[in-house]
Amino acid sequence: MAFPQNSLRPFLSYAKRGLFTAIQSSGRVTIVVGNESADLDSLTSSVLYSYVRSLVPPSGAFTPLYIPLLNMRAADIRLRPEFEAVFRHANIDASHLVTLEDLPEANESPLDPKDVTFVLVDHNRLQGELSKKYAARVRGIVDHHDDEGTFFSETSPEPRIIEKCGSCTSLVVRTIRSSWESVAGGSSLASGAAHAQGDSSVNDGSMTRTWNAQIAKMALASILIDTANLTAEDKVEEADVEAVNYLESKIKLSLQDAAQWDRDKFYESIDYAKRNIDAMDFEDILRKDYKQWTEKGLNLGVSSVVKPLDFLIKKLGGDLSEDKQQLFVSSIGDFMATRRLTIFAIMTTFTSKSGEFQRELYVQALSSGYAAAHVFAEQAKVELRIEDHDVASCKELGSVKPLDQGPWYALFPPFCGRYSTSDDFHSKFDHVNRRKVWLQRDVSKSRKQVAPLMRKAMREAA
């Protein structure tokens, strides 16, 4: 039976109910999940893929309904202010999303692995708690990170697409475009799970075009953020440009949306929301865009922060005094201890007063991670063009200055000498040779390139 297309809001509600029903009845589910940082690209990739795939399930699909899973706790959505800005354009809110709390706990009725299929977007290796139970149940991948070679090449009927692109959402758009077109016009009819949502729906072309415009704006948000509105020449690929053009065409088909559409203003509003972290506390800023990996028994964590390091230090007390610098290192130590990290890195991005885009790189390591940190530092001199950096002597927030034996140098000496064999963070200042800050002169390299370089160093130093 065919049913009219619906908007994103009732689809997400239907997907959440479908998950609950599957849990209660031991039914099958197909889950589309982004990476552990649960950033905007992961959100939009999983939602767009699930929505269109549910409208037009491929032949041989594990289930007709695809459920988008946001890889975070619902309480942590507040750490993503850009989500709220995007929600308004897509006519949804946080309560509609499926989050980690919606999956059963170990002591509850479980989702048997044989009844679950995962499609990974914005990563190609299942991480964290999900990997412990469902790593063998991955049956599809759409990603733009380095191929970790974890999963076999044959994933039919789901794709296995891993290629360089500014945004994973662009690859998803290319993947689902023909299916979306088959239901996108006029009074769209198709026989998919998204149509039987139990919500009122109208077989009206103008309404359908409005729904498509809402979904297109959601998808555009992450592509524009990841490519700086298609201006980041080192990131933008043909798939990004094609996706933006295609999605904008969806918006312009809606008379209501076309009249108000301004891509530059749209990008600026989402970018402003993403960078608006002034009200967050120190730990929340580190958690906002955080990823973690394990290599050779060592744990690596990397946080991306859209403010300079001096902003973070001032979060702990309002100045750059030596006491506050030490409090910064101590607070980083607590963050590491909670997550049992061997090495932790902070990658900052900001624009200097002169308008120059800048990156800083901070690394803190336990003694067991010193060798890997040293290997990374040597390789990063070439790969990232890192230079020593003195944060404390800078007079303006976000300014940069080469290192010159100042107070910041004393706190962040080069990785050299020997570490104690103790990794006890209750004595954080017993051995100073465990942290370092640099300017990253190759600003084209994001965490997508830096984290693999760090992981490679961890494997080589083991």
Structural notes for this entry:
It is globular, with a radius of gyration of 23 Å. The N and C termini lie far apart (58 Å). The strands form three sheets. A six-stranded parallel beta sheet has the order 4-3-2-5-6-7. A six-stranded mixed beta sheet has the order 9-10-11-12-14-13, with helices on both faces. A two-stranded antiparallel sheet has the order 1-8. 41% of the residues lie in helices and 16% in strands. With 462 residues, it is α/β, with parallel strands linked by helices. The model is unreliable at 186-192, 195-203 and 393-433 (pLDDT under 50). A hairpin with a 2-residue loop joins strand 9 (290-295) and strand 10. The chain has helices at 8-25, 40-55, 81-90, 128-134, 168-184, 205-226, 238-253, 255-260, 263-275, 282-288, 309-315, 322-339, 370-383, 407-411, 447-461, and strands at residues 3-4, 29-33, 66-70, 98-99, 116-121, 138-143, 160-162, 189-190, 290-295, 298-305, 343-351, 357-365, 386-388, 435-440.
Assign an overall shape: globular
Q: Which stretches of 5+ consecutive residues score pLDDT under 50?
A: 186-192, 195-203, 393-433
Helix-strand topology string: EHEHEHEEHEEHEHHHHHEEHHEEHEHEH
Cα radius of gyration in angstroms: 23 Å
Structural class by helix and strand composition: alpha/beta
Summarize the structure.
The protein has 15 helices and 14 strands. Helix 13 packs across helix 15. The chain is globular, with a radius of gyration of 23 Å.
